[in-house]
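Ligand-bound model needed. succinic acid.
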Amino acid sequence: MAGITGITPEFKNSDLIRKGAFVDGQWLETASETFNVTDPATLEVIATLPDQSIEVIHEAIDSAAEAFRLFKKTTPKTRSTWLRNLYNLMMENVDDLAKIITWENGKALSEAQGEVKYAASYFEWYAEEAVRMYGTTIQPNNGSNRAFTVRQPVGVCGIICPWNFPSAMITRKAGAALAAGCTVVVKPDSQTPLSALALAHLAEKAGFPKGVFNVVLTATRTPEFGLALCESPKVKKISFTGSTNVGKILMKQSASTMKKLSFELGGNAPVIVFDDADLEQAVTQTILSKFRGLGQTCVCANRIYVQRTIIDSFAEKLAKQVNEFVIGHGLDSKTTHGCLINENAIKKVEAHVKDALEKGAKTVVAGGRLPELGPNFYAPTVLSHVPSTAVVNKDETFGPLCALIPFDTMEEVVGYANDTELGLASYVFSKNIDTVYTVAEALETGMVSCNTGLFSECTIPFGGVKESGFGREGSLHGIEDYTVIKTITIGNLPAPL
Ligand code: SIN
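Prediction:
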């Protein structure tokens, strides 16, 4: 097959490349079955890992439950120190960790480096939050009672993560869990497990006791592993990032044990560009949002509504910047944008492009497959005057199709934007503060990003509304999801002196 072959990264710290799952402080490298991890840019096998049996997930849960007995009693200061060590270790290994992400996910190395720093920032943030878990004091109506609340760790947490951020989606959840005093069982996506294993190695080095941070591996038993986590009475919380459909399944499965849940699910983010926006800024920021991870993030722009008066000039400026992208192997330093994760991802982009064209959209940048680079390469497509009946309005492309849809009035566009069951992120561009604020309040999404295409960072509460899920990650709120409130009342006190 034509394409790029044989790009193997050189690692300064080869200990980061692990060959097995990490359970109860042990590396489990053998199993009766194995699965391959491939470089999506070349389809070359980069690792062969154990495809573990269902017993292993139960061992991991048991280990996490046993470790929790002591870990919940560690002081916040101790947990803060271990989290800070973990942050420092990630930052010492940024280059290697980024190469691992690029190798297994396909994103450009500069983006992968950004992901490692973003991922590490959650450990730094939660090192600082661990010591700030406050309760409240209450004045009961009963005058001889006094009451207060304490926050306690919820217990063992099942953390189920996607392939699009092989490192950051783990640290955003595990950072909060570990800070709160919870132990974790991490199930990474089988397409991108190497970053999770590298994190397990660093967590051990950072000082976390055995059983506190476990990573299990499977490619063929993902539903069974999910079921085991959801149904185990020892697991007290599930945190999942992935599709809305899988979220619904996990929610049903968790009902029997009444688990605490936080779900970050599908997006379908609208971008609204008003004609009083700074056009250059709106174009550049829309591109940053649309093509982060080549369109494969839950907060990527999916439907780009541009006021009719400026849609043609917006499209022209956008096309100019998109045509400057350098698509290639993520490990090549010249590459600005890498490849998609797999063939299905490309097929979905193609289906959305075909549908929009059939319904009357105009081609601005044709884009399309790049078989000369490899099977998963696709040059971005930009379409303008996409009708509101096109599938892309309803269904998240999760890939490099930039669909520009015209609108005339604020009321009309807010109607379009909210006409979906999903509500993760949305974007507004206008230099009129009244417009920005009115639209931001009206949009039915958990996050509204105004005049910027990039808003994610550890300080921001990240999460959705409607069928995009619930719970907030990062920020001062993130740790709450990993704790339960206990109320302590002291009664029958003597009358005040
Ligand atoms: C995601 O795609 O799920 C996460 C995106 C982000 O953290 O910005």
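The chain has 13 helices and 24 strands.
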